[in-house]
Design brief:
With 297 residues, the chain is of the alpha/beta class. 30% of the residues lie in helices and 24% in strands. The strands form three sheets. It has a nine-stranded mixed sheet, sandwiched between helices. It has a five-stranded mixed sheet with strand order 2-7-6-5-4. Strand 9, helix 5 and strand 10 form a beta-alpha-beta unit. The chain is elongated, with a radius of gyration of 21 Å.
Length: 297
């Protein structure tokens, strides 16, 4: 939940309509089909659809207020819902998320890579969740819209937040997401040919992913897949402690003696600091072992 006065502070928007600044809004939602009673609907102009065209639908579903662009203000004035008016709703959503993140003192784990972000997020959240109250991004909410929405799900009970960070369309995208989420732990899974047509080379893709590592504070931790040459090299760009995981003997956390157990998952021996632990995970494939190693790191 978020109060109206926090939305106004975070977006610098103007409130039009009868709504107390102390009123509670249940969730911040950008898809009118997902709106429930008491939510704030954010109307975002997309490449093919404009969320402003769906405000009436959001109101019918129970939206308590709508965040709208100033150029739509007049045409929406007859709707029976308070409006929070801003110059640009996407920028306002991102600013609100950055404001909301700044309220809380907690750990944020950012995860990026060409593939394996979602599976790694799920494993990390499960492992960390055994000891802490964890909030994770839903589905693949990892872009300039999804990540702010995930950040706005943070509650006072949250202790650790696990977020996917996409971005292989342009340089600076992950850096922007990191400015919003302010991760203190960053995990990079791999660099592969996914998005190669957009970025032109694996090295260019790696340059987008390393933005997460470069964003980490000096007290943070970079967790890198040593088995991927381009990811391993990112350790040279970190301004914080680096932990390597993988099958390579030089890894700080290493898996050996991998054994497939069919539908029952995978067994392996984890070596860390000279200690060995025999583990079994109910997951299939080498990528699952890498995800588990990242979580244990």
């Amino acid at each position: 939940m978020i109060r109206v006065h926090d939305v106004l502070a975070g977006t610098q928007g103007e409130l039009l309509g009868d709504l107390s600044p102390n009123a509670l809004l249940n969730r911040v939602v950008h898809d009118s089909r997902s709106v429930a009673a008491g939510d704030l609907f954010v109307a975002i102009r997309g490449e093919h659809l404009d969320g402003h065209a769906f405000i009436a639908d959001a109101v019918e579903r129970g939206a308590r207020a709508a965040l709208v662009s100033a150029d739509w203000q007049q045409s929406l004035s007859e709707l029976p819902v308070p409006l929070i008016v801003v110059p640009d709703t996407l920028q306002a959503l991102q600013s609100l998320a950055a404001y909301w993140r700044g309220i809380f003192r907690l750990h944020v784990i950012g995860i990026t890579g060409s593939i394996g972000k979602t599976s790694t997020k799920e494993v990390v959240a499960a492992v960390v969740g055994s000891k802490h109250v964890v909030q994770k991004s839903q589905g693949n909410f990892n872009n300039e819209i999804g990540l702010p929405l995930s950040v706005l799900d943070i509650t006072p009970d949250s202790e650790v937040v696990v977020l996917e960070m996409g971005g292989a369309y342009a340089f600076g995208e992950i850096a922007q997401l990191a400015q919003i989420a302010r991760p203190d732990i960053g995990i990079v899974t791999n660099v592969t040919h996914s998005h190669l047509s957009r970025m032109g080379s694996l090295e260019a893709i790696a340059q987008t992913k390393v933005e997460l590592i470069e964003s980490l504070p000096s007290h943070g931790v970079a967790i890198l897949n040593i088995d991927d040459e381009l990811v391993r090299a990112m350790g040279n760009r970190a301004n914080c402690r680096v932990v390597y995981y993988g099958l390579d003997p030089a890894a700080n956390l290493r898996a050996v003696d991998l054994e497939s157990r069919g539908v029952d998952g995978t067994a392996f021996t984890l070596i860390r600091g000279g200690q060995e632990n025999h583990l079994h995970i109910p997951l299939l494939g080498l990528h699952s072992v890498h995800a588990a190693l990242a979580a244990f790191a």
